[in-house]
Amino acid sequence: MSRFIAPLFLALTFLITSITSGIAAELAEKRMVSVTGMGVAKARPDTANISIGVVSEGESAKEALDKNTAAMSRVIVELKGQKIGPKDIQTTNFTVRPKFQHFKDGKPPAIIGYRVVNSVRITVRDLKMLGAILDQAVSLGSNQINGIQFSVEDAASLEDEARKKAMADARHKAELYAIAGNAKLGKVLVISENFIVSPRRPEFGRAAMSAKAAPVHIEPGEHRVQARVHVSWELNN
Q1: What pTM, to 2 d.p., does this model score?
Q2: Per the CATH hierarchy, to which homologous superfamily does domain 47-151 belong?
Q3: Largest alpha-carbon pair distance within the chain?
């Protein structure tokens, strides 16, 4: 049977190549216009993802771990008290590492203690509670805030809106070119797209993250979705 496979494969390859070449040739013979359309959809963010952590040190690994566990437990209890569900709290990093003292006289480094890092990512779905959550987390022992990212939960609808605007922009440009060339737009020949999502990511300093600091003010800004679509139309006389 194997002696029939190679000829069959070659025949299929030739057929596919012929079809592809035929389509390319057909497109090359058509009068067409190709343009790029842009569409931007904006929405107020309704969800925030925050990475917070507890860094603890001690002379022994157990001492550092006990301090870290106690602080993180207080933070988690507070988060759940703020109606953050279990599915919205996820551990992202947990490390126990020795601290070394280095010498200049060639002696080998000596362990002088241990550091424990425990980080979690939380999803906040009520942005009005965001500042209070950050305040409480820091007050109860979180001493590491790695960043915050806003998003829109119903991102699909926002993307569809951007798509429609991009397509409308492309058609508008194509019609202008067609009129300038004494032609009319015919059927669509090719459509391809890509997205550029550019949400605003605020930055805040660690100096503001202390138990005695004023309430944390976070501005979510706006979430932007930019769609770019490449479209080719056939031109008719």
Answers
A1: 0.65
A2: Protein of unknown function (DUF541), domain 2 (3.30.70.2970)
A3: 87
Residue reference for tokens 């279990």: 86
Give the C-alpha separation, 149 to 195, whole Å. 18
Among 117, 153, 146, 140, CA closest to 50: 146
- DSSP annotation of 192: E
Pairing state between β 223-236 and 89-101: unpaired
Burial class of residue 118 in the structure, from the number of CB atoms within 10 Å of its CB (0-12 exposed, 13-18 middle, 19+ buried): buried
How far is CA 4 from each of CA 1, 16, 17, 18, 60, rounded to the nearest angstrom? 6, 19, 20, 21, 72
Looking at the chain, which residues constitute the CATH 3.30.110.170 domain(s)? Answer: 30-46+154-237
- Contact indicator for 122, 91 with CB cutoff of 8 Å: no
What are 35-77's pLDDT values in tens digits? 999 999 999 999 999 999 999 999 999 999 999 999 999 999 9
Q: Please report, as a single letter, which amino acid is at residue 29.
A: E
Q: How far is CA 56 from CA 5, 60, 116, in A?
A: 66, 11, 5
